[in-house]
């Protein structure tokens, strides 16, 4: 598999899909066979503007295309795919493992907690030995954390959000230790010469800091240092959506989270996200989800009750 040029690489919202982020959670977990078999074990080169993948492979093999280079990997392997890194996979049919996807707000939060040693902004892979000489059996600890994340994600219970956050933080710490331990795997940092990607990263950071204020795209573009037309062009090329659509997606994600995990009224959610009135928020939400905020909340409550 060879990665395509930047302008022709598709942008997926999830693992091999163009759909919206499907959950109010900031984390998504599934087995690798679960989805890759639907694509004949091949996920063609693509990228995500606002998602980070962590793959843990316990069995089988994968041909990994990562930032223009190919690698044949077998055995116990972890792969880190940061936002905007071009990547693709060709899995063997006997592959076993999981893929954990982090929404950018969670990835940025973890990176902030762990600091520059965090592995979440480095495209990387690690072939793990069956045992570790330093600090006990690190590969087994990583496998246990991945298994616990998968179990907790699939079977929601009291305190799920807190436990998932603790587990993913522990996993990122373990992976970051691999990154700083002189591991022989090659690293593929962001292309420093790619100004477009740097502009998008700056724009996404501004979005995360100010989305509740619903700033104008012109004002954000000025802070990035480009025209609004150029920012829109970059967003469409690299992220697959206009600058305004990216702002709306961030608002929608936060609205889903508040409707699912808080007791805030719809009016309070509307106010917290910078809408001038609840009716406008309701129209915005229904246009993007086909459900009113109330209908969405009732559906999430029913799903949570079934899961108990």
UniProtKB/TrEMBL annotation:
CDD domains per record: cupin_HpaA-like_N (cd06999)
Top-level taxon in the UniProt lineage: Bacteria
Thylakoid among keywords: no
UniProt domain HTH araC/xylS-type: residue ranges: 201-299
Keyword Cell membrane assigned: no
SUPFAM superfamilies documented for this protein: Homeodomain-like, Regulatory protein AraC
Name by which UniProt lists this protein: AraC family transcriptional regulator
Keywords, comma-separated and alphabetical: Activator, DNA-binding, Transcription, Transcription regulation
Molecular function (Gene Ontology), one example: DNA-binding transcription factor activity
PROSITE patterns in the cross-refs: HTH_ARAC_FAMILY_2 (PS01124)
Organism of origin: Vreelandella sulfidaeris
């Amino acid at each position: 598999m060879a990665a395509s040029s930047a302008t022709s690489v598709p942008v997926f919202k999830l693992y091999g899909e163009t759909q919206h982020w499907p959950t109010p959670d900031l984390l998504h977990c599934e087995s690798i066979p679960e989805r890759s078999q639907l694509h004949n074990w091949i996920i063609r080169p693509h990228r995500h503007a606002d998602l980070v993948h962590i793959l843990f492979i316990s069995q089988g093999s994968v041909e990994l295309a990562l930032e223009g280079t190919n690698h044949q990997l077998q055995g116990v392997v972890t792969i880190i795919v940061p936002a905007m890194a071009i990547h693709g996979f060709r899995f063997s049919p006997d592959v076993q493992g999981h893929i954990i996807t982090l929404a950018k707000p969670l990835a940025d939060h973890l990176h902030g907690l762990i600091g520059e040693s965090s592995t979440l902004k480095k495209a990387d892979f690690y072939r793990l030995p069956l045992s570790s000489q330093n600090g006990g059996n690190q590969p087994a600890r990583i496998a246990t954390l991945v298994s616990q994340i998968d179990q907790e994600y699939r079977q929601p219970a009291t305190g799920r959000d807190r436990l998932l956050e603790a587990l993913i933080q522990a996993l990122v710490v373990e992976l970051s230790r691999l990154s700083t331990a002189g591991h022989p795997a090659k690293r593929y940092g962001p292309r420093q010469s790619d100004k477009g990607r740097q502009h998008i990263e700056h724009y996404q950071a501004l979005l995360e800091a100010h989305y509740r204020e619903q700033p104008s795209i012109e004002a954000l573009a000025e802070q990035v240092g480009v025209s609004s037309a150029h920012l829109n062009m970059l967003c469409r090329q690299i992220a697959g959506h206009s600058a305004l659509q990216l702002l709306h997606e961030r608002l929608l994600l936060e609205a889903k989270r508040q409707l699912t995990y808080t007791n805030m009224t719809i009016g309070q959610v509307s106010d917290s996200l910078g809408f001038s009135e609840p009716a406008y928020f309701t129209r915005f939400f229904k246009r993007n989800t086909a459900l009113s905020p109330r209908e969405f909340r009732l559906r999430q409550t029913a799903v949570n009750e079934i899961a108990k």
